[in-house]
Amino acid sequence: MLLRKFNFELPSQNVHSLQRDLRYASSEGSKMTKISVIIPAYNAEDFIEECLQSVVQQNESDLQICIVDDGSTDATFDLLRHWASADQRIELASHTSPKGAAAARNRGIEMAQGDYIAFLDADDLWLPEKLSMQLIHMDEAESAFSCTAYELCDAKGMRIGRRQVPKEVDFSRLLNNNTIGTSTVMLRRAFLSKHRFPDLALRQDFALWLQLLSGAATCSGLNTTLTRYRRHGASLSANKLKAAKATWQVYKSLPSLSRRRALQSYANYLVRTTYKAFSSHFY
């Protein structure tokens, strides 16, 4: 399969300096931090190879790449087996029938052995510096949970927008506006603990982030574009009506959230999404 190539704009930070800092830390006698990358895949033959290429070309090479094929009916699993035979860091699991993104990610979590876990969807891409820069950011911020800014692109890889992230996200802020892109998330495995993605068809990631931040914890934002998030007709979030219904299910599922606050948060969500749709149509 012919791989499409994308031209990434390198972040403004001094990448070479960051890499030098990583090599220095490693030379001081501590083993390089191992990251478990979790990729759920379902009928992703058009995008999975580009996704994996962006992972294996990361500057941070000490990786465990956990891929869960969720019962694909196209060539996805055959492509994954080829990649797994060529790179010993790739560990492949599969479901005999589709169980959904939550189940696939949760199985990947069970496979994970790294100190950190990073999530990536099969149709998304990382810049080469993504993991190394995020590790440094988490260390400097003393954070166990982080996300980054990301770029939006269409099915052909054409840029259609960018999403920024605030410096810090707590439960209240996340409740009003989910700025955490799943393919940008990296967290310490110990922080994740026994938390798992709930069994929801959509927005299971949003529900998990709310669980993780329901106490005093926060998510640290690195406002540098290190991920490319692809929007296309087959993506789960493409259907706005389904997404709206799923968001309400998330609010209703939170035991600590009163019905009044759930309604207020949902109203804010509807206003924001309507405004975005209106703006994109006229501008």
Automatic annotation (TrEMBL):
Residues 36-186 form the Glycosyltransferase 2-like domain. Keywords: Transferase. GO terms for molecular function: hexosyltransferase activity. It holds the Pfam family Glycos_transf_2. InterPro entries: Glyco_trans_2-like (IPR001173), Nucleotide-diphossugar_trans (IPR029044). This is Teichuronic acid biosynthesis glycosyltransferase TuaG. It comes from Celeribacter neptunius.
